[in-house]
Specification:
With 348 residues, the chain is mainly β. It has a domain of 102 residues: Macroglobulin (MG2) domain (Immunoglobulin-like, Sandwich). The protein contains five helices and 22 strands. A hairpin with an 8-residue loop joins strand 15 and strand 16. The two termini are 38 Å apart.
Length: 348
């Protein structure tokens, strides 16, 4: 069995196990299970690996555009997948028998994917101690997993070489930034951290010759010493419609009560479709963080056509309270609105 067919068989088994077979789902969470930096936790790698490996399904040609049914998708076998060797590096559930572009993110399909390997991302600051409310430069260095040398070549993902997500420990501050790549191969971002405390960061990038990566990092401002368990936010479920800068977003889920390990459909309904435009190559972007700041997820629409309704398919890896930010562009304005939901565990 080829490596791609073996991977497909593994994904199909995982989806059946969690009852998610047949969804046109987006890759979420960590795309592999990287070890967290010094402040990381092995549980994060495990939880986020589960989020990744259990949300893969198959979309072939027009099936995605028409909304693949669960029954039809469940007929696709590992043997059939071996005849579809061209894969989207970002959305590996999108496959084709020949060259082309991904129907979801627009990336070029590639003939098979290399073995997954972790590309460490190192974070440093200038000045050395980041202070809340003062300018700081964040620097990111990516290392090749085999040589340990600096990785200097990257592929664009949704129009950028690096997507950086920053979330404050109280989940009140969220940012989606794009550090610039210098001639020395280092990414840099000049910013101001408005909240004193701890930030969780996610670097989303695609090293040339490798596979797409999502790497978690932690940054704490100077003179803040409270451990994360002591500052865990007390979230309350909030699904009320949210008004952005120039549109309003309503939110619902199917099933109404999400359960960890099972497919959840997220529906974002806009009050208008007038002047909607893609933002960084997608009709919407979603980022979710659990209140423990360990489990984090990044997703794009499974179904969207520029109309009022946007659907995203995810599997929450753990029960708990999650804050979800969705980003939608109308005209030249990017709207970012938050929702908070509770995900229950398995009964019993």
């Amino acid at each position: 069995m080829t490596s791609s067919a073996a991977w497909a068989a593994f994904s199909e088994k995982q989806m059946r196990r969690f009852g998610a077979t047949g969804s046109a789902s987006r890759l979420v969470g960590i795309r592999h299970s990287p070890r967290l930096p010094a402040s990381g936790c092995p549980r994060a790698a495990l939880a986020l690996f589960v989020a990744w490996s259990c949300t893969l399904s198959v979309t072939i040609g027009p099936a995605f555009a028409q909304g693949q049914s669960r029954g039809a998708a469940s007929e696709i076998t590992a043997d059939a997948l071996s005849d579809l060797p061209f894969i989207c590096p970002m959305d590996p559930d999108i496959r084709s028998a020949g060259p082309g572009s991904c129907s979801r993110c627009g990336m070029k399909l590639v003939l098979g994917l290399p073995d997954m390997a972790e590309y460490p991302m190192l974070l440093t600051t200038d000045p050395a101690g980041a202070e809340a409310g003062k300018p700081v430069e964040l620097r990111f260095e990516v290392l090749h997993p085999d040589t340990g040398n600096r990785q200097v070549e990257f592929e664009k993902v949704h129009e950028k070489l690096l997507h950086l997500f920053l979330v404050s420990h109280d989940l009140e501050e969220f940012r989606h930034e794009h550090p610039r790549l210098g001639r020395d191969g280092m990414f840099r971002l000049k910013t101001v951290l408005t909240h004193p405390g701890t930030y969780r960061l996610m670097g989303d990038f695609y090293p040339t010759g490798g596979t797409p990566q999502m790497v978690p990092m932690t940054l704490t401002t100077r003179r803040f010493e409270d451990p994360l368990p002591m500052i865990r936010p007390q979230l309350i479920e909030d699904r009320e419609p949210k008004k952005g800068r120039n549109l309003t977003v309503s939110f619902r889920t199917d099933p109404p009560q999400p359960r960890s390990g099972f497919l959840t459909l997220l529906f974002f309904e806009l009050n208008t479709a007038r002047s909607l435009r893609k933002f960084l190559g997608a009709w919407a972007h979603m980022f979710a963080a659990k209140d423990d700041l360990v489990t984090m997820m990044h997703a794009h629409p499974s179904i969207a056509d520029g109309g009022k309704l946007i659907q995203m398919n995810v599997i929450f890896p753990e029960p708990g309270m999650y804050r979800i930010w969705v980003q939608v562009r109308r005209g030249r304005t990017v709207n970012t609105v938050p929702f908070t939901i509770q995900v229950e565990g398995l009964p019993g």
